[in-house]
Design goal:
The protein is of the alpha/beta class. About 35% of the residues lie in helices and about 20% in strands. The chain is built from 9 helices and 10 strands. A 6-stranded parallel sheet has the order 7-6-5-9-8-10, with helices on both faces. It has a 4-stranded mixed sheet with strand order 1-4-2-3. β6, α6 and β7 form a beta-alpha-beta unit. The N terminus is likely disordered.
């Protein structure tokens, strides 16, 4: 029997987010398993890989080409055969859904926009605080963002079930749409205005970047305001989820004060 037709048992690495190996992934796709992202070794389209990619795209699942080295790292060097599917704990919402929720609550929109938050624990923590602070949803880019995995759900303490997450192909375009609909965009970055001196009234899109790179140049250019947290210690930055939490509660405080 050829290697391609063997049916290896699904290998687990202690990470329930992952479905590893060609046959395991193919059967998961056929069974309608909820999958967030398909990771495929760059340049590998032999055998059943092409069929796997076609099925994934038919179901509008994000397909990413990555290095074989990264696949090895993700699955702890288990036998992945060039294919890993990241199971999803939640389905994505649409941008319009956030406006509907805000309208139903009688509030101006409050959305948190995550620019390249790739750590699932950070994303989960942001979602958890977004729920507590009354945000109507979180917006993430299709690429360079942590998938909505079970790790994210755990880090969110279950808030993922209550906070709509919108995944957009182009974050800058989504920001342009928000601005066109009357939403003011506040980017959290160094060198901005002290956040306590900024008016967060009205419809708010709060943009949070990664710890390493911050918000991207094009994303920053689309922001109406750049806000910063005063740093009085020796460390020049905060964890992204911590900074996001402080700013989200400032938005929440402003709304409570004004009865929004």
């Amino acid at each position: 029997m050829g290697r391609e037709h063997q049916s290896p048992r699904p290998e687990r690495t202690g990470n329930d987010n992952m479905i590893i190996g060609r046959n395991s992934v193919l059967e998961a796709l056929r069974a309608g398993t909820r999958i967030d992202t398909l990771l495929v070794a760059a340049g590998d389209r032999a055998g059943s890989v092409g069929k796997i990619i076609a099925l994934a795209r038919e179901r509008k699942i994000l397909v990413k080409d990555v290095s074989a080295k990264k696949l090895d790292f993700l699955c702890g060097h288990s036998r992945h055969q060039g294919v890993i599917a990241m199971a999803a704990a939640y389905e994505y919402a649409q941008l319009e859904d956030l406006f509907h929720i805000a309208q139903e609550r009688g509030e101006p929109l409050f959305a948190v926009i995550c620019d390249e938050i790739e750590d699932p624990h950070n994303l989960g923590a942001i979602i958890r605080t977004a729920d507590a602070a009354g945000a109507h949803g979180v917006i993430v880019p299709a690429r360079r963002s942590a998938p909505l995995s079970f790790t994210v759900n755990k880090a969110s303490a279950g808030a993922l079930s209550h906070v709509p997450i919108v995944r957009v192909t182009n974050l800058v375009s989504a920001m342009e749409e928000l601005r066109a609909r009357g939403v003011f965009l506040y980017g959290a970055d160094m060198g901005g205005t002290d956040y306590t001196q900024v008016d967060f009234g009205g419809a708010v899109g709060l943009v949070i970047g990664s710890e390493g790179a911050g918000i991207g140049r094009l994303v920053r250019e689309k922001c109406d305001f750049i806000v910063s947290l005063p740093m009085k210690g020796k460390i020049s930055s905060l964890n992204a989820s911590v900074a996001a939490g402080i700013l989200m509660y400032e938005v929440s405080r402003t709304r409570s004060t004004r009865g929004q």
